[in-house]
Input
Amino acid sequence: MPELPEVETVVNQLAKLLIGERIVSADLMRERLAPHHDKITFASALQNATISKIHRRGKHILIDLDNKRTLMVHLRMSGRFLLVPIEEEEPKFTHARFDLGSEKKLLFQDQRHFGFMRIVDSIDLFKSKELAKLAPEPFTDEFSPEYLRATAVRSTRSLKEFLLDQTRVCGVGNIYASESMFLAGIDPQKAASKLTRPKALRLHQAVRDVLAETIAIGATMIADPANIGGSIYGDGEGEWRVYGRENEPCPNCSQPIVRIVQAGRSTFYCRKCQR
Output
């Protein structure tokens, strides 16, 4: 599932390609993609609207329109956008189509069928149930070491599971939780309620550093209109410090990286460096 850096990269790529484009028509081809709308209301809310801004909150892509509405998109497991010529045939698993005034069409493709869209009034955007419950953004002053520790000590979960809770720490998913805990030198199985002030300081900085370095890599990528979405590191996992590296040597101490399962998700860490 795309995490904050991947979503930020998609937002930046979409903004370069779509700002100022007019949506001539919209077709909701799989109605469960947008459960709050039927095909007619979905099309009517977007028809002849011009895209004025594309931004992000957490892992949600927010497409602001000049008709004072916002199209909210969550890629979930496999969602991606394609910007192609109007005459090109839609590929399999295309769930929404947006015909643009530039004689191109924006497609939303989702092989796993978990993607989500919702149209809301822009003035009420951040009051929507999807966004109102989210934790502070990781690069804001509100997300401080003090906030992180005060929130963690009220949790009954492990630190790894705590980091995945978007109402507590926004934008961090399975990969970046493992990477952040390794960088901070903290055991992912440690109870969140036991997080000390020094470790909270290290973990706070590690979360920001891991996200920032990956966003920076994403910023160097050239947008591929035929495939907007996916992993910043592509098919390989060679850039990760620990994620996906079970039994490979730790980059710090050369001890083998261990994989465990927490809440149904794989966690990778070094038993020696993360105590």
